[in-house]
Amino acid sequence: MAARGLNLAQASEAALILAAQARDQAAFGELVKRRQGWTRALLRRMCAGNHAEADDLAQEAFVRAWDKLKDLETPAAFSGWFRRIAVTTFLMAKRKQRAVFEEIDDASPLADENSTPESAAGAKIDLERALARLSDAERLCVTLNHGEGLSHSEIVDVTGLPLGTVKSHVNRGTEKLRRLLEAAA
Amino acid sequence: MSEFNALLTRSFAEAEIPADDGFSVNVGRGVARLESARRLRGAVQAIGLGLAALTVAAAAFNPALALIQEWLGNAGLGAARAYGALDSSVLATQAEGAGADALSSLGLGLTQILLIAGALVGGAVAYRSAQD
Questions:
Q1: Residue A162 lies in a domain
Q2: Choosing among B10, B12, B35, B36, which should be mutated to test the A contact, i.e. which has the most A CBs within 10 A?
Q3: Domain edges within chain B
């Protein structure tokens, strides 16, 4: 049921969040419509292009957000708060699949020299395919760092990983992507 | 490296945003299921609490009744002892007077009871005769 007097299509995101906190499912539905693209794109990158898995995780993240919405202190904090839920949902799913994020595999090659070269047409790369070459942990940290613009310490805050591990994953992941493109050039 | 980082950031920004394609509807269904489960859980909890309260009340009733009886008994005993502590001569006089009053009251009461009973029997016989 929509909150009295709230025009969902024209309402601000803050108004929708406040209405959703008052258990207005229609307002939350409008919020999902506005945020689904960003959320699914983020999770599709993290899931190495597995769209079905990413969409399942995105749905789970939204339902979890509805359940915990009363914990959100201010509508202005929604973006960061929801990003954390999405990342936590991803980490939990991957840990069920026995993925390890805390360890850094120094023995792994920085790039697969024999792999099919990535397209580097123009000044744009096939990001999804390139990211698929990284480990889960590297992909997560590179996506949050370059895609979401989070600093290393902010990634620590969102993921709960140690700072040194985050720095290693970002640096190794970025370096792998760079070498993949050099090999393709 | 910084040039590559800029390219990477730009590529992230230009990445394709997926269309809704029924995704929001699916989330809405998930939320509705969650709410139904929450309401059901609330109802089950309320019923459970009610049953628990009834059980506690039933269990507490008999001991509470025994306690009240004991308390009333003690109070009556205390009153009797206080009464017995009063001057025995006064008591004796009062007891004698009270006994005489009780016998007198019983006599008056008995007369009234007999009169009422006679009236009722007479009325019943008259009513029976009229019916015949």
A1: yes
A2: B12
A3: 21-85, 88-132
Cα gap A144→A154, rounded to integer Å: 9
Asked whether residue A17 falls in the same domain as residue A90, the answer is yes
Q: Tell whether B7 lies on the interface with A, counting CB pairs under 8 A.
A: yes
User: Which chain B positions have a beta carbon within 8 Å of A23's beta carbon?
Assistant: 35
Cα angle, residue B59 at apex, residues B56 and B61 outer, rounded to 5°: 105
Q: Give chain B's residues under pLDDT 50.
A: none
ipTM summary value: 0.76
Q: pTM of the entire structure?
A: 0.67
Contact A40 B26 (CB under 8 A): no
Domain coverage including residue A19: 13-96
Which residues, including other chains, have CB under 8 Å from residue A158's CB and lie 6 or more apart?
A80, A83, A84, A87, A144, A150
For position B47, what pLDDT does the model report? Answer: 93
CATH classification at residue A43: 1.10.1740.10
Of A57, A58, A86, A70, nearest to A20 by C-alpha is: A70
- Nearest residue of B to residue A177, measured between CA atoms: B8
Same domain for A92 and A139, yes or no, is no
pLDDT at B98: 67
Residue B67 has which token pair? 């306690």
Q: How many domains are there within chain A?
A: 2
Q: What was the pLDDT predicted at B90? A: 60
**One domain, residues A90 and A131:** no
pLDDT tens figures, A37-96: 999 999 999 998 899 999 999 999 999 999 999 999 999 999 999 999 999 999 999 988
Q: What is the mean pLDDT of chain A?
A: 85
Task: Report how far residue B94's alpha carbon sits from residue B70's, in angstroms, rounded to the nearest whole number.
Answer: 30
Report the CATH number that the domain containing residue A143 is assigned in CATH: 1.10.10.10
